[in-house]
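TICKET: design request
STATUS: open
ATTACHED STRUCTURE:
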């Protein structure tokens, strides 16, 4: 070590690069410490700031199953009245029944049956009417749709492309526009927009879905800057894989939490970015610990292109399995 220091002192160029390397390492170490602190130590904003237990309402879209259902149930347990929105009325009834049972009637719950893929669905008018009756402090734009299976864009069905854009983009923008003026008036609110890892690392063979989630990330960042002066928090919540019908994954693992575990982490880390802190996503949040570390190291180490290539190969493999399954089913008909 003494030899290295003596050499550096006697060589200005070496001294410069030694200082630069030390600074780079120190910067990386500090960033990593902050990310680990937000991921494993620091608590998020207390939800009482947004009216938990004070009669405020949380609106959750895509609330009939999976992540949306968990947001509805867990926000109710934290003291919010819940407005659950989805297209399946029977499933929504199940959600409100569970809320009533789990909270022993301490919070209210309402439902609106709405197919957000249809801009003229009667549920839109019903939603507007309900918004005039309640004070919305939390909005979770969770409703989403992906492709039925990996597919090249040139082979995608136009109807599927239209539905993905309408559900993932149009519905998020439309509902946010309905709710936001009330939050601005009250100088308080929380908006959680459901993004995806494929929105920050482009996913070949899921091009339309990936593009819509990239829009959600950019939209959230722009909106967050606009409304922070009004006391409103906007975040794009980016999961990797989660056990759900959409992902078609049934078993949890270190990298794939259950919907309940993911939502619990999300609500515990409101206002924190975790692995999204230093990767160019100012309003992003990777609340689940393994997703947080994955996003951080992919972003900081510059593995984005390698991840795109890996994802493409993965989706080609999945598509081959789907094609074989469809061929077997065709033979049995």
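STATUS: resolved
RESOLUTION: sequence designed for all positions
ATTACHED SEQUENCE:
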């Amino acid at each position: 070590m003494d030899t290295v220091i003596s050499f550096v002192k006697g060589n200005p160029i070496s001294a410069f690069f030694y200082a630069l390397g030390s600074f780079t390492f120190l910067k990386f170490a500090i960033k990593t410490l902050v990310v680990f602190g937000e991921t494993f130590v620091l608590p998020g904003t207390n939800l009482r700031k947004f009216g938990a237990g004070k009669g405020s309402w949380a609106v959750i879209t895509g609330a009939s199953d999976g992540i949306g259902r968990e947001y509805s149930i867990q926000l109710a347990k934290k003291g919010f009245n819940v407005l659950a929105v989805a297209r399946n009325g029977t499933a929504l009834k199940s959600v409100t029944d569970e809320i009533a049972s789990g909270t022993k009637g301490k919070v209210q719950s309402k439902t609106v049956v709405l197919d957000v893929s249809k801009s003229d669905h009667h549920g839109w008018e019903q939603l507007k009417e309900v918004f005039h009756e309640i004070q919305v402090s939390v909005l979770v734009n969770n409703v989403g749709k992906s492709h039925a299976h990996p597919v090249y864009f040139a082979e995608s069905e136009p109807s599927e492309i239209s539905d993905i854009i309408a559900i993932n983009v149009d519905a998020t923008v439309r509902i946010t526009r309905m709710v936001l003026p009330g939050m601005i008036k009250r100088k308080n609110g929380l908006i959680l927009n459901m993004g995806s890892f494929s929105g920050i690392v482009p996913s070949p063979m899921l091009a339309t879905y990936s593009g819509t989630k990239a829009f959600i990330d950019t939209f959230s960042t722009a909106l967050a800057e606009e409304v922070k002066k009004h006391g409103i928090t906007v975040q794009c919540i980016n999961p990797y894989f989660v056990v759900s019908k959409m992902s078609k994954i049934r078993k949890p693992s270190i990298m794939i939490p259950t919907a309940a575990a993911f939502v619990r982490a999300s609500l515990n880390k409101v206002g924190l970015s975790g692995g999204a802190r230093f990767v160019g996503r100012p309003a992003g949040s990777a609340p689940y610990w393994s997703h947080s570390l994955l996003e951080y190291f992919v972003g900081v180490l510059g593995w984005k292109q390698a991840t795109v290539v890996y994802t493409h190969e993965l989706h080609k493999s999945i598509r081959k399995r789907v094609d074989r399954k469809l061929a077997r089913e065709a033979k049995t008909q």
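CLOSING REMARK: The chain has one domain: 41-325. The chain has a mean pLDDT of 93.
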